[in-house]
Known about the structure:
The structure is a homotetramer of 366-residue chains.
Chain A: E1 5-6, E2 11-16, E3 22-28, H1 38-48, E4 65-67, E5 71-72, E6 75-76, E7 81-86, H2 108-115, H3 131-149, E8 152-160, E9 163-164, H4 186-199, E10 205-212, H5 226-235, E11 240-245, H6 256-259, E12 263-264, E13 267-268, E14 276-277, E15 280-281, E16 286-292, E17 302-305, E18 311-314, H7 328-351
Antiparallel strand pairs in A: 1-2, 2-3, 3-7, 4-7, 5-6, 8-9, 8-10, 10-16, 11-16, 12-13, 14-15, 17-18
Helix pairs in contact in A: 1-3, 3-7, 5-7
Binding site for FMN (chains A, B, C, D): 125-127, 238-239, 278, 293-297, 319
Binding site for NADP(+) (chains A, B, C, D): 48, 54
Keywords (chains A, B, C, D): Amino-acid biosynthesis, Aromatic amino acid biosynthesis, FAD, Flavoprotein, FMN, Lyase, NADP
Amino acid sequence: MSGNTFGTLFTVTTFGESHGPAIGCVIDGCPPGMALSEADIQFDLDRRKPGTSRHVTQRQEPDTVEILSGVYEGKTTGTPIALLIRNQDQRSKDYSNIAESFRPGHADYTYWHKYGIRDPRGGGRSSARLTAPVVGAAAIAKKWLQQQYGTIFRGYMSQLGELVVPFEDWSHVTENPFFAANASMIPQLESYMDALRKSGDSCGARIEVVADNVPVGLGQPIYDKLDADIAYALMGINAVKGVEIGAGFASVAQKGTEHGDELTPEGFASNNAGGVLGGISTGQSITASIAIKPTSSIHTPRHSIDKAGNPIMVETHGRHDPCVGIRATPIAEAMLALVLMDHALRHRAQCGDVSVSTPKIRAQRP
Amino acid sequence: MSGNTFGTLFTVTTFGESHGPAIGCVIDGCPPGMALSEADIQFDLDRRKPGTSRHVTQRQEPDTVEILSGVYEGKTTGTPIALLIRNQDQRSKDYSNIAESFRPGHADYTYWHKYGIRDPRGGGRSSARLTAPVVGAAAIAKKWLQQQYGTIFRGYMSQLGELVVPFEDWSHVTENPFFAANASMIPQLESYMDALRKSGDSCGARIEVVADNVPVGLGQPIYDKLDADIAYALMGINAVKGVEIGAGFASVAQKGTEHGDELTPEGFASNNAGGVLGGISTGQSITASIAIKPTSSIHTPRHSIDKAGNPIMVETHGRHDPCVGIRATPIAEAMLALVLMDHALRHRAQCGDVSVSTPKIRAQRP
Amino acid sequence: MSGNTFGTLFTVTTFGESHGPAIGCVIDGCPPGMALSEADIQFDLDRRKPGTSRHVTQRQEPDTVEILSGVYEGKTTGTPIALLIRNQDQRSKDYSNIAESFRPGHADYTYWHKYGIRDPRGGGRSSARLTAPVVGAAAIAKKWLQQQYGTIFRGYMSQLGELVVPFEDWSHVTENPFFAANASMIPQLESYMDALRKSGDSCGARIEVVADNVPVGLGQPIYDKLDADIAYALMGINAVKGVEIGAGFASVAQKGTEHGDELTPEGFASNNAGGVLGGISTGQSITASIAIKPTSSIHTPRHSIDKAGNPIMVETHGRHDPCVGIRATPIAEAMLALVLMDHALRHRAQCGDVSVSTPKIRAQRP
Amino acid sequence: MSGNTFGTLFTVTTFGESHGPAIGCVIDGCPPGMALSEADIQFDLDRRKPGTSRHVTQRQEPDTVEILSGVYEGKTTGTPIALLIRNQDQRSKDYSNIAESFRPGHADYTYWHKYGIRDPRGGGRSSARLTAPVVGAAAIAKKWLQQQYGTIFRGYMSQLGELVVPFEDWSHVTENPFFAANASMIPQLESYMDALRKSGDSCGARIEVVADNVPVGLGQPIYDKLDADIAYALMGINAVKGVEIGAGFASVAQKGTEHGDELTPEGFASNNAGGVLGGISTGQSITASIAIKPTSSIHTPRHSIDKAGNPIMVETHGRHDPCVGIRATPIAEAMLALVLMDHALRHRAQCGDVSVSTPKIRAQRP
């Protein structure tokens, strides 16, 4: 496979480039009979779309979705659902000056070496714009999982550059452009971003994502473990360099007596596992963290080479997110939802309809 | 798919349980005409096998491999290669006392919920013993990649519980039972483990794994990115809770001017990328880190429940690794090798034979 | 998988229904760097499109294709190629009268039982209209195979209802609406179809399809044999009930001395094999035949039941092909091309670039 | 994929060569909790094994199966089931004289061209001996389908060379070595085979295979149609050159009024469909026919070439089936069972547990 299909039973095949005529996807395997309209999908697309604050790219894309197939009289038919989003705000000429050189930390170098051809317009296929179709597809998965098991997906930014953003309350997340679960730090985050932009530099971010009310038993050991597939899904998001499940890297220094979540008749007493044991969901909340690297397209000159291998200095202008992590929260939720959806179908293929036996949980993270 | 096959073009399908009659695998997609014998495979199996020091499980398994198919007159034929390892040192009775209860942090809870049935003998299918067949399969991948591109795989333990183990030199790794790249800390690591065992507890570990001489262009964006598949492979190893590529979580606090590896006519000037940009290999060394949680089977009593949901205290006896991370280095190398092998074949499917154009690298990690 | 993707390395994922807003597909795995434009694809779409003679459905669809992605400056980039065809001539109301009943021999019965929902508009997803996207995708495969190996694909109708249509010459095929390789029988075929339409009935057809200049070595035994995949591809075409490779059912009564194609230094002396031995291409021409059943939507009343299980009489009006086999020749060629394309990539994944060693052939069929 | 795995959710990965140390398979995706022992599997292996009459190869293989994994305390665990069959009666030296030449109609030519290497011992991987593991795997599928839906699989030989063998009664099939559903013709079939053997020649055969009590709704349009997958499975059996579903090639000359099976409140009135409409099972019996070519290894000299391309005469000695079709009936049943099993799991992945609504059938074939 050439890598443009996500999932095995609930599959999402995406297409498109940042500045081509359109982007979109084909979703195969959606159970029939679920009510579905464009509005169900547009909501999450709007959470991800560019141009919504001064801290993200100023490209203006309404990201209006059209359902081309798979829905009849307002219900899914069980056949492929195709989503189409026309690109509106292409500016290909922005990229002509960089078509012959490589940006440090950018995929332009590897695409050119792999394919012997390169679409320089906004990163072409490697652009983070291509997360829009999966966010659309995941909205369908989320709706089904919510109806079937009550599963819900949430996320927040827990660090922006050097600034740790402590979790205060879920209610804050929708009230600021950073997806921060913290109201008091917003002015500080805004100043940080304003200074960063002025300096012509970029920064990284850390995102936490959580799924609550996950049925026990999802995951296919021993290679398609639920956490392995989550790691695959999250590491595959543009610019991600690290993934943790539950206690993550902190578990290295934990003792067994500390790490293993004790069980009680009322549920698990803690959640170091992040909701997965042996690659199978426990019924605890699924918790994962990702590290997002700083954007590679920056206004500061850096050493590089051109296609002929000659040394050059390169700096990037045009419209770029100074921190791609700012818009990453809905994307991370989407990827997690797609993994759970796929595993829900895989589980019932082998074991029959999932009996919803979600153990009570005493302690969750955060 | 039910999750017991690793890879898409170079596939490894494993079978077996910790205390069943045998474990093994079927490898499909191996290029024909490569010299191969059991000795090629046994070497890596011996690096992984139990019972080689007092710091790991005392189960005695020679892990002798038999090639059942796919090799004729000492050469691979292009047809499936089946590997068989008979289990020798089963002690099923060790587990009868835990068959009705669940260990905190152990897969026994999730297997029972998923399948409605559970093999309590040494964890059954969820045992780390099942890493042996993939280590065997990866020996074949390593040999092919080495011959084709000169690619080599190495790894070491960089942290044991709270003890950070600084990298000194690769030569030390084979000289101690911890796979530490550091000679002077060995006495400290041995005392740490002796104290841990006495206390009836367990600890985690951190492992670094590196592939050198990787051709440019491997990886299939945008979902089967090389780093996404590495994350999938490494997170799928028993007890792993976190995966980093290159700078990993440190990249959150890096600036773009710091993170993006500059290019020069002599090669990359640094390796924050960990050898992957846009999901495609750059020709830099691939570098990854994993966090391994402490073993869940410990001699200390913990709160849990039995199958009926009643509260109980559970403690585990029998033979267990007090730190599964100690034997994890060859396993991590193996998983990385399987990912690169699969992507080498995927690349040449679409783009033809890989032209080995490995850019010179000035700075590598470590 | 839910069955809407064809192929494993060169994959075609289609979407759409007969009377929805659009049909199309996403092609993944196309090698980069090949010149490609809409004109390359339109040619084959025009050979398949409806309304081109009085013997086929009178639905007017220009089937104009738009390439949405995967091509930059006239060349394939190696990323997904999305094709979009807007439906133009929908008449959903034609189908309201049949929405509650089942046509003998039609998929409406099984779709309703499988999905619990049914799109009655022109057969919805089960319509032969959905062969358009694969014909489009196959045009890309044909171009690549032609450039790489000189492979060409041809087909013709060898039987229409009871009328056997002997092969005379390839040149005739493009000169009549039946794809008959025979000029003299055209008046007879036209009268036959005119009488059939008047009678309100339908008939079957037999199609032969041939690939010349196929490299030796394509096919992946022992399950993805080349002939097994051809059978899968051809039997999957709407209304096909039988598939033969080479001598087909005639081989039952052949002796071994008669069937096995002798080899000479100048090539094979005959082609009973149909170009495949042991599931791998021999370099002989690939030859296959298919049987197409008569259309199920006919103007003659037949016994059936409604959704409630009550007996009814059903007859179908609206626009239908009285013999779906008439337009099947380009579809069969397309499916054969997709199979060979997929296997060409699979072969080079495992065995490296195909060395084009096509043995000389003395005798071909027809 | 390299073609050695059958199925998508219920997968069978086979390994082994005709004269290697062992053959076997790994079955993944079997639902947990089903009682299973070696005896369940041995029954079908014994129906297929060689040496049971003078009309088949005299190789003596008990084909004793060992279950290596996936069963605990007599029940399937949901983890991979590995089956091992040791080869007992290898005679590699029989083949030394043919290692440098190619038999007309044999896979030795294509294997050598594809892989650049060839195992001449009894056809190596291309041997019909490799049908044993799938017959074993299918025994598990049959048991599950029988318990779940009451589905049963049967087959018979309907033609041997030129001799048509009319169906009389299922009871005869087990009473003769030909799987003929006809008692009176047995002496004629025995004389035919005796004469054939004496002449040093071989012949083809035609096999019919039927599945009764198939639930409605199995099949994944539009590419993994149930009949497409059946065609793939049956054409993939060694020596098969043609596949028909239901009326097959006879449907070419049928009218729509004749072919389409009318529905009545009591069930379908006929079965031209062979149990599949639009790629989805109807609840009618699934009926399929296959054409098997004559064995290529014969005692009669034929024109061929050696590896260097020089003309030679080749004739084969050693132990060969003079009609591979004689043992093909249990193999065809097995392949059909594997297809239905896979689709049963695929269906419930997307649509939930199959509601067993098998419409009553008035007319079945034969």
